[in-house]
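Handoff note, outgoing to incoming analyst
You'll be picking up this chain. Sequence as last confirmed:
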Amino acid sequence: MQACNAHGLHCVPLYDTLGAGAVKYIICHAEISIIFAEKSKISEYLKTLVSFSTVTNDQKLQAENCGLEIYSWDEFLQLSKQSKDRVELPLKLRSDICTIMYRSGTTGEPKGVMITNESILSILCGVNQHLDNMSE
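Most recent structure output, in case you need it:
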């Protein structure tokens, strides 16, 4: 999440427990174009996919036929090393969105909750204060 944040991207976690229909809805609703996933979680709604496991040549061909770019985690890490362009990180504000968390839609579709950088900082400060007050 912090790497996405540093580049001005929003992290949107997807949970199996919401069900396949909800995951499809979230991908479309949040306009997700890249997902980091296990091999068994590959979906047809994306433009780029990064798999935490190896990617077979057959999977690469299938991805190309669907207009999808697919990378293994190791291949993805190499992309930045191959780039000659220096990436300038955008200035982040406390009011910027850090992540969008979807909760189950018990009365319909899942609902997205936008969580700002300030909210995350507040949680971290509270945890830090709590830890400081604990006796070891």
